[in-house]
Amino acid sequence: MFYYFDYRYFLFAMPALLLALYAQWRVRSTYAKYSQVANATGLTGAETARRLLDAAGLHDVRIERIPGELTDHYDPGAKVLRLSDSTYSSYSVAATGVCAHEVGHAIQDAQAYAPMRLRTGLVPVAGIGSNLGYILFILGFFINSFGLATVGLILFSAAAVFAAVTLPVEFNASGRALALLEANGLVTPQDYAMAKEVLDAAALTYVAGLAQALSQVLYFALLLSGMQRRRD
Description:
It contains 7 helices and 3 strands, in the order ααβββααααα. It has helices at residues 7-34, 45-55, 85-88, 93-110, 114-142, 146-183, 189-231; strands at 62-66, 73-75, 80-84. Strands 1-3-2 form a 3-stranded mixed sheet. The longest helix is centred in the C-terminal third of the chain and has 43 residues, at 189-231. It is elongated, with a radius of gyration of 21 Å.
């Protein structure tokens, strides 16, 4: 990769990389800490999710167990909330927060929350753009094709747009999760504070993802401006 030999790349990438590493450490350490703390209700993550879904009138949303740790997600296409091994049968405060967060996504889907619908629509665009755009930009840079590199940068920028749209979706889901837990009497004040700490740590990973995407786009834009100056 040509930019590994360009010191400017590290100036752009290093802050975002350090933030990403810190975010990953924080979410892992916070989750590990509160996965050892039993919640006050005595409900598993799956039981908590079911209660919250039913309270929101989402009786048709199914809950499935999937392998892994922190692989929890809501599938809007299948209307399924998938909980990882680490949360499905866990009685921990961490599991309570994570499962409630995914229920927040299910409610967003049911209410046609605009940022979530936009993010869902951007998934294929971001996937194609981040891969094809990267290839086209590098190819254009090496053969000195300003037009091809520009198309590559535009396509690659879709990943940054996707990361930006993801932020309000994730923050809103976490806000809904905490409000749902409190409204349904599923957390004590102490549990609420601990669950919030877990969700705040998880949210930081999305901030770091956006920072990384933007740093890459800005670096490519810098290279593209250099190509333009050489053309002029």
